[in-house]
Specification:
Length: 183
Amino acid sequence: MACIPMRNIFTLTLLFLFFSSALAQHAARADSAQGSLKPAPAFTLTDINGKKVSLSDFKDKVVLLNFWATWCGPCKAEMPWLNNLHTTFKNEGFVVLAVSIDPSDKPVRSFVTEKGITFPVLMDPDKEAYFDLYAVFALPTSFLIDRNGIIVEKIMGDREWDSPEMKNKIADLLKQRAQRKTE
């Protein structure tokens, strides 16, 4: 029986991860570009303080729904940017809603306190919203949801969330609803 060198297995694994990630990102961009806008699935989860929170609690707000975990380096790296974005737009009808898939809330509470996170952080240890409702397979993954509860973009991977490009995108979503209300 032939033996496959460990270096070949490692190389094949890296190639598989690279191409599966690239394919997933391409599919997400294709969904967004083709305008396949879908209602955000409803859920109710418990926040890190034990309070029940539903997506519907944020009706008429633009929501950035972010799936993450404390063991995910890119997830932790983007949290300060998410916090800045939330702080910038929170008084205009925008909220960042983070959903941790950590099995325990203890490391999540510690991280949130240490980093001074000001947006709601929910727990999904059974991955009901993460996997069953939103079909997320990699972290971090975020969904930009408009004031009508429609997913307008799926964003895979970490981002510099308080960049001018993202701030313009959020500002445009906030304006769209305001224009509809006055018509």
